[in-house]
């Protein structure tokens, strides 16, 4: 199936949400933005996910990250369902907008259709897709999870922390990295440049190839 | 960019690997299979990721899951690089095959091209894509991460544990779920069916809508 993938521009769609109409590029503005779809309102995993996202929304706000939910249900359904979400998550508040896509136009353009799932009327519904969009309005990273598998907010926070550091420094984050752990210097940076860019120093791992490409440092 | 997404069939390509030629469908057989690409051999994040995958390979083997790495480098490069990977990860062994795609044919068909990255010759390289393929040879779940962000093996294990339970029971796993925690019963299952299917019992969360859709149980 054709669809949006990393590096692609976010289509600048006009969408109806629980916070009124928004244009996607205006909403993103200069922030990293998380756009996440769910199969349907008043369904079990979705309730736990949007509750978890509400519980993490302060954390995302601290990181300067905006949130936007999305499903094929309408705005009135979303508003009624939010009462269930907030009751489930013990007083957390759904402060982020949830977009409505009854025509399935947005979920198609954003590669969020789940081909294996239909609603009770036989219409297509979204997968548990999650795109992280950069301030340049391009897709930086995507999760495409099926209806069976709720997402993991800790992993979403982890990758945001990685993307933000990589946007500010010529570094990348190694496998299983968590905030506070060492990062690696990009291969495009020579050792001479690394000495200037990283006055805190760096450590090169000694490997059989002796190519000296695995250089660890620390950045905030 | 057009590309493979969840629900799509895995193309049955013939690929060259460090373990000899394989056909993708034969390799998958009746197992869940993880196909993961990396931007390039002898680069920093990739070395940590393939080392982490080697360290987790026994865990994946216990889960009955096969692994297949992939980049645009050739087999000889992969074989030389494995010495670095194994040195980095303190004696772990790269027992899984790594496929070679110097023509960039496979990464295009598997939606693994990173539009923002080129090698030193200006050729396309893969992103950090990871597809989990089911025994039915279809894509069940995908991660599309950029070069800057190493993947998280704990999250990969978590979603495999979810997919396998959902394949065996009419359940799904809630947000942030980990093995051993309660799961939710699928909305397609009536309460009467749930009583038969889950003799261990289940608990319905009381929500303002009184729709009774959030039912937790436990499965192995």
Automatic annotation (TrEMBL), chains A, B:
<keyword id="KW-0676">Redox-active center</keyword>
<dbReference type="InterPro" id="IPR024706">
    <property type="entry name" value="Peroxiredoxin_AhpC-typ"/>
</dbReference>
<comment type="similarity">
    <text>Belongs to the peroxiredoxin family. Prx6 subfamily.</text>
</comment>
<comment type="function">
    <text>Thiol-specific peroxidase that catalyzes the reduction of hydrogen peroxide and organic hydroperoxides to water and alcohols, respectively. Seems to contribute to the inhibition of germination during stress.</text>
</comment>
<feature type="active site" description="Cysteine sulfenic acid (-SOH) intermediate; for peroxidase activity">
    <location>
        <position position="46"/>
    </location>
</feature>
<feature type="domain" description="Thioredoxin">
    <location>
        <begin position="4"/>
        <end position="165"/>
    </location>
</feature>
<dbReference type="Pfam" id="PF10417">
    <property type="entry name" value="1-cysPrx_C"/>
</dbReference>
<keyword id="KW-0049">Antioxidant</keyword>
<dbReference type="InterPro" id="IPR036249">
    <property type="entry name" value="Thioredoxin-like_sf"/>
</dbReference>
<dbReference type="InterPro" id="IPR000866">
    <property type="entry name" value="AhpC/TSA"/>
</dbReference>
<protein>
    <recommendedName>
        <fullName>Peroxiredoxin</fullName>
        <ecNumber>1.11.1.24</ecNumber>
    </recommendedName>
</protein>
<dbReference type="InterPro" id="IPR013766">
    <property type="entry name" value="Thioredoxin_domain"/>
</dbReference>
<dbReference type="GO" id="GO:0140824">
    <property type="term" value="F:thioredoxin-dependent peroxiredoxin activity"/>
</dbReference>
<dbReference type="Pfam" id="PF00578">
    <property type="entry name" value="AhpC-TSA"/>
</dbReference>
<keyword id="KW-0560">Oxidoreductase</keyword>
<keyword id="KW-0575">Peroxidase</keyword>
<dbReference type="InterPro" id="IPR045020">
    <property type="entry name" value="PRX_1cys"/>
</dbReference>
<dbReference type="InterPro" id="IPR019479">
    <property type="entry name" value="Peroxiredoxin_C"/>
</dbReference>
């Amino acid at each position: 199936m054709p669809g949006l993938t990393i590096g692609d521009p976010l289509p600048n769609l006009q969408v109806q949400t629980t916070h009124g109409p928004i244009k996607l590029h205006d909403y993103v503005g200069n922030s990293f933005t998380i756009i996440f779809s769910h199969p349907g309102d008043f369904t079990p995993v979705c309730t736990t996910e949007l509750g978890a996202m509400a519980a993490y929304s302060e954390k995302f706000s601290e990181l300067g990250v905006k949130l936007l939910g999305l499903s094929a249900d309408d705005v009135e359904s979303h508003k009624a369902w939010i009462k269930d979400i907030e009751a489930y998550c013990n007083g957390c508040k759904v402060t982020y907008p949830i977009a409505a896509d009854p025509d399935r136009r947005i979920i198609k353009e954003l590669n969020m259709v789940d081909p294996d799932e239909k609603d009770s009327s036989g219409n297509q519904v979204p997968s548990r897709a999650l795109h992280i969009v950069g301030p340049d309005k391009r897709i930086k990273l995507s999760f495409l999870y099926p209806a069976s598998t709720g997402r993991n907010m800790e992993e979403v926070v982890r990758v945001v922390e990685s993307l933000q550091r990589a946007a500010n420094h010529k570094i990348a984050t190694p496998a299983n990295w968590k905030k506070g752990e060492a990062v690696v210097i990009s291969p495009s940076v020579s050792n001479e440049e690394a000495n200037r860019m990283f006055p805190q120093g760096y450590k090169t791992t000694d490997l059989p190839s002796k190519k000296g490409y695995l250089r660890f440092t620390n950045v905030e």
